[in-house]
Write a structure and sequence with these properties.
This protein has 429 residues and is α/β, with parallel strands linked by helices. It has 15 helices and 18 strands.
Length: 429
């Protein structure tokens, strides 16, 4: 395949996966368009009044080749941390994961969770939906006190309506481990995120900055229309032809921009659902928790998770102060009351995270409208319709939003590199 100036690979979006794709392609073989004024997508940092905030927690879970690559991109600029995570339940702060530490809860709750787990040991795991998977994997007690309330709060969807195809990240202990946990043994370093890395300076935004150092990016350039049959896109008043289009654009938005998409493709895309997240960044006078993050499954708290930037990287807050991110999900922004910030701060005080509302000196709201794809039965049917169509038009959706899935930052980097290498190998020079 010979590429000329009018027939290049086009990459839509300079988030991690788009940048990773571009990083392994010959410089003259592609054009990279980013709708925002700077690269990074949600992997950006904001410096404000002495604090460094991200778009909620962005922690790196890397190994092997990806770890080596990122270390070369950012030499001597990665902190390694052992996770300190907790669950706030029944007025107590217990170790995470819940399924190994419910023994730290009141006796009645502990017994209900342990008995429920013991009862399902001879049961076959039922993957009909998230609810049946949870009940046959953890039992009724753990499902009742954590899996159901936490995931329903996060996804704003009944557990029965969620599929079981995104549960690979949830730690699944065996009977002996659960019994030991019920007796009080701490087993905190399990799961994919038991260890993580984070930049030693600059916030997570230094990662896309390092990636984009030698990549030409056309910023403030939104792809407005795609004509798939003619393999061309419009940006502003200009049209560009492509050999392949690598898209990190949220999948429903991508399909909307394809002028010649068949009605069944448009219909399938419109059925895809997601939740947004209001990231409430707070600067606090004084010290708060020593945790990296805390899960809040109970409905009285409007947030599902609270994280502590200053414990991840001390430079995130001025000396003697704390920087927090508070995550509140929504399907529509209007789902949240106007007083949501005040309500969240009030509940942080009631949980003992903040001593006094007057200690909050910085408040910043960041709206992330597509934060998590909702994994339901409709999603699989829609993707089975959409993805073959895109493939037939040489449109390659990648990344968390491009493929409407869940990926970590490490997986986004890996996927982008693999796509870039594949495309690079197809170019004859």
């Amino acid at each position: 395949m010979n590429l000329d100036a009018k027939n290049k690979i086009i990459i839509a979006g300079a988030g991690l996966s788009g940048l990773a794709t571009a990083s392994v392609l010959p410089q003259n073989s592609f054009m990279l368009f980013e709708s925002e004024a700077e690269p990074g997508g949600l992997c950006r940092s904001i410096r404000h009044e002495g604090y460094t905030f991200d778009y909620t927690g962005h922690l790196l879970h890397l190994k092997g080749e990806m770890l080596e690559w990122v270390e070369k991109l950012m030499p001597n600029n990665l902190i390694v941390q052992k996770r300190r995570a907790y669950v706030f339940s029944h007025g107590r702060m217990i170790d995470y994961p819940f399924q190994l530490h419910f023994g730290q809860l009141p006796n009645g709750v502990r017994d209900e969770c342990l008995c429920g787990f013991e009862e399902i040991q001879d049961s076959k795991i039922d993957i009909t939906n998230f609810a049946t998977w949870s009940k046959t994997t953890f039992g009724k007690g753990i499902t009742k006190y954590f899996m159901r309330p936490y995931n329903e709060k996060l996804f704003r969807t009944k557990l029965e309506e969620l599929s079981a195809d995104a549960v690979q990240y949830i730690p699944r202990p065996n009977l002996e481990e659960v019994r030991q946990g019920a007796l009080g043994k701490r087993m905190t370093h399990v799961g994919y995120n038991a260890e993580f890395r984070y930049p030693a300076e600059g916030g997570i935004g230094v990662l896309p900055q390092a990636l984009s150092r030698e990549i030409k990016i056309i910023t403030s350039a939104k792809i407005e229309k795609i004509i798939a049959d003619e393999k061309k896109i419009s940006v502003g008043k200009e049209w560009f032809s492509y050999s392949s289009l690598v898209s990190t654009i949220p999948l429903p938005e991508l399909i909307k921009s394809i002028a010649d998409a068949p009605s069944e493709i448009s219909s399938a895309a419109s059925s895809l659902e997601a939740v947004g997240v209001l990231c409430l960044n707070l600067g606090i006078e004084g010290k708060t928790s020593s945790a990296h993050w805390i899960y809040f499954p109970e409905q009285e708290f409007p947030f599902y998770r609270v994280g502590f930037y200053h414990n991840i990287a001390p430079y995130s807050a001025p000396p003697g102060k704390s920087s927090l991110y508070v995550e509140i999900s929504y399907k529509k922004r209007t789902d949240l009351p106007k007083e949501i910030v005040e309500q969240a701060i009030e509940k942080l005080v009631s949980a003992g995270i903040i001593k006094d509302e007057k200690k909050v000196e910085v408040r910043q709201k960041l709206w992330i409208d597509n934060a998590y794809a909702i994994h339901n039965s409709i999603r699989k049917q829609a993707l089975d319709t959409i993805l073959p169509f895109l493939k037939s038009k040489d449109i390659i959706p990648i990344g968390r939003f491009g493929r409407w899935t869940y990926t970590s930052m490490g997986e986004a980097l890996l996927e982008g590199r693999e796509i870039g290498i594949k495309l690079s190998n197809s170019i004859s020079t």
